[in-house]
Write the structure tokens for this entry.
Amino acid sequence: MSGFSSAPAKMLPSDAPPPPVPAPPQPVDWQRLHPASPFLNAIIIASRAWPVFLVALINGGSPLVIAALLLLAASVMLALAFVRYLRFDYRLEGTTLVVRSGVFVRTTRTIPADRVQQVTRNEKLRHRLLGVAEVLVEVAGAGTEPDVSLSVVAQHEAERIRVRLHDARRAVGAAPPAPDRIAFEQPNDALLRWAAISSPLFMLPAAGAVIGALGDAVDIERAWGWLPDGSQLWFISVAGLLGLAGATAINVIRFYELRLVQTDDNLRLEYGLLTHRRLELPTDRVQAIVTKRSPAGRLSRTVGLTAHNASSGGDATNSYLPAVPLTEQPSLIGLLFPNVDISASIEGHPRPALRRSVFRWTRPVVLIVGIVWIALRTSWVPLLFLWLLPAGALGIRAWRVLGHGENDDVVLARRGAITDQTVAVRKDRVQSASVYANWFQRRLSLATMQIEVAQPLGRVVVRDMDATEAVVLATTLAEQARSERPGDQPNKHQEQQDPLEAGDLAPGDHGGGSQDHRGEHPPDSHSVEIGE
């Protein structure tokens, strides 16, 4: 008896089911700002017009008419803000932020994550009451283009945008991000000491001395005549205390709970009580650190630190820490400048620079006293020449502070008389260097070196160096800058001259003026430009 086998038939390769087809990527929906955005923007715009209505009210305008005009203006502003709200949307496409805006002219802006310089999250008091935040995306190399502002979005959406853009900047295959940790937290007592001492009201004694010196030129009795007899001192004391408390409160509120948070390979700066700010601080883009020690800092035993990022400009690229305790300064600089050695010794400048420094500080006193003498012709005016003594002392101290230094990683420049400032610039961030000297500097064998870096810092000026040393250092910096750009060729117009003959008369610097200028050389001076 024949039968059939019950074994399953072998399936041919052509009969196999096709592999599953991956689903096409879902399109990302365009998103609008928070519905509260037009109302907040309209209020901000309308509030700027209050001086006009105040002047109209003071000049006798009808309160009813002014209120009607104010309501009409607010309605127009709200309508315009609402139209802009409807015509503004954005979306995140992978690692790219795309923003569309414009009422009559539609503009689409595409921002790759690798061009994002900083993502700042601002939460002012009005934002926190409504649960929203403002996101400012700063773009590197944007030129004249404005940064992207998303004002406003929900707080969770602001955090999502910040995290997405931050993650997209990581290199492919990077390790998973480490958990955030607080790397530095500004002590509140140090902030309070700095805020109180840095109040401008400490200039009141100096103002009182000036008023007293004016004598007959100011009718003090007429100025205080509206106060009852004997109450002037109480009024000054109470006003001074209230002003001191107010100025202290403003600084404390602005920088309250300032901290640096370590986020994987970057830092995030957070601070503020009423307006809470969060600024991304990529350490690989920090090009310079400025350390300032003011009289308030000396009394409060703190220093101020500013980290400058390379960017197209804007205040968002400057991360300011106003009250860093002296004991924590080295570790904080190590966080901002990882793997960078800034322990270079600073050398003072030659003694001929002392003459220029004293002249630079005493010249304004001579000019002011001369103008006052011509205007008043009174017998007490020559007494103002006594101000030459403190001015000369400040000139001497400025020369003692003046100095520079370098090592393999950074160039240091120090200056100041009342407030000492030290700038540490990474050598691999230098774009070019120039040396110039006016007629007075050439006679003293001095020169000024200008180091060009990316905006917003722009440049660092080292004043009144030894001329030969200035050219040698500038040449070294320029060669290193060219080595960082191997494809660049030196400019055919660049030429190196004798350092004692190289010079540039700075606009307004006739024997000691400011070198706060760029790129303009008078026809009767010489300069050596080294670098780009």
The mean pLDDT is 76.
